[in-house]
Amino acid sequence: MTAVRIEFDEPKCVAAGQCAMVAPDVFDQRDDDGVAVVLDDTPGPGQHEVVREAAAVCPAAAIHLIES
Amino acid sequence: MPHPYPTAREPRCPFAPAPEIRDMPPLAQVEIWDGSTPWFITRHADQRALLNDPRLSIDEKRPGYPHMTRSRAAGAPHHPPLITNTDPPEHTRLRRTVNAPFMVKRIEALRPRIQRVLDDLIDEMLAGPRPADLVQAIALPVPTVVITEILGAPYADRELFQTASHVLVSHDTTPEESAEAGGRLGAYLGRLLQQKMAAPGDDVISEMAAKVKTGEMTAPEAVTMASAILIAGHETSASMISLGTLALLRNPDQLELLRSRSGDPRFVAGTVEELLRYLTIVHTGIRRIADADIGLHGQVIRAGDGVVFELAGANYDPAEFPDPMRLDLTRPARQHHAFGYGAHQCLGQSLARVELQVVFSTLYRRIPALALAVPFEEVEFAMEGVAYGLRALPVTW
Ligand code: HEM
Ligand code: SF4
């Protein structure tokens, strides 16, 4: 079974919140400036599809997935 | 000969980009209003790579920047540093000061309020005469009420900012008219900022007022940012609502599908993404200038060259969206470029999405007999703005 680990490049994040919209159980946004917060950097298989989508739509290419 | 740009759409097929654009090579040049010939990028993959490439800049003060209009070119040297004219890392810092109100969770919290605003407007329209103009009855008031509440501007003042912002986004405006409208809007928002500094409320201008007090932001920055949010925040969503309704009425099978699944939030969210792709309302290209030489498709974009990204090109790129001319509410479309891509991707996108999700899940369910009150050919498009839209949408039910 594949495992997915999320690497988040915070300085690049422009806080558009696409990740929090697509995968709300995995990404949140910081209250004061909207910068993304990874709630779970090794999400379970049920989240893999939406996490891949979040990485694909992130406009700043700030979400990297290490799949093993 | 570089093709003149922006290019008129084909009247028979008004939602799709002009055929010349779809047929261009991946790296082309176009001729813009000042006679200059910036590079023209139309492919989805190229836009993704370049809109995140630090060798491209949005610094509109540089000579050679491919301005949208003569008015914009005239205004550019007078703007303070803003999210719309700075590059990372300065852009990142500025954007983080204005981001909070547009975060997904704060916008989600507004959903019930947006629903109520819409329900009341629908009640009003249904109680009034037929035909009605959907632009004035629903499309324009929904985002206008919402953005004024978010900013903390009285809705009663809407006439002032609706007329001023219409002048500011139009391509038919002289630099003088544009400066006058900008001045009027700025003076209005400056007064509002002063009021909020004295008596803050729970709104974005009050949040900016607090930042002005602590020195995190200057007053001119706050006023310019508030104008940008106001201008960007209502005509765009209004265009999506009226054009989206027209597109669905032209595609009755898709409208029926949406109506039957309007209780399914995932389906509705997908519908909104596909309509954003299909309509790509920002139709005058987003603009950058090269900071260094960039090789692409065997040619070189030189440092100092202007670059224009045609968003509809990417959104109708068959390599990314098979059969792009078809409105298909079931296709995965989230990777569209209707909000741009890269660091400047739309600040208000979550707000626009929630507004559109509320409207598209409600309007056709509550008014199942909604129909055009004039032949399609008589619907008047408004093509002169940064985003296209409709002057009026006469409907009956
Ligand atoms: C469906 C509606 C909308 C569309 C299609 C749209 C489209 C766009 C596009 C294409 C850009 C990128 C410009 C560039 O990269 O040069 C942008 C940026 C922006 N949008 Fe929107 N927009 C919409 C709604 C809104 C709303 C509701 C707001 C405000 C609340 C807003 C505020 C902004 C701002 C402030 C920027 C500049 C961001 C930056 O440069 O960092 N937009 N929008
Ligand atoms: S989608 Fe990317 S840029 Fe947007 S909040 Fe998430 S990580 Fe940040």
Automatic annotation (TrEMBL), chain B:
SUPFAM superfamilies: Cytochrome P450 (SSF48264). It holds the Pfam family p450. Residues 1-20, 57-92 are annotated as: Disordered. InterPro entries: Cyt_P450, Cyt_P450_B, Cyt_P450_CS, Cyt_P450_sf. Gene3D superfamilies: Cytochrome P450 (1.10.630.10). The keyword Metal-binding applies. Keywords: Heme, Iron, Metal-binding, Monooxygenase, Oxidoreductase. PANTHER family: CYTOCHROME P450 YJIB-RELATED, P450, PUTATIVE (EUROFUNG)-RELATED. This is Cytochrome P450. The lineage of its organism: Bacteria, Bacillati, Actinomycetota, Actinomycetes, Micromonosporales.
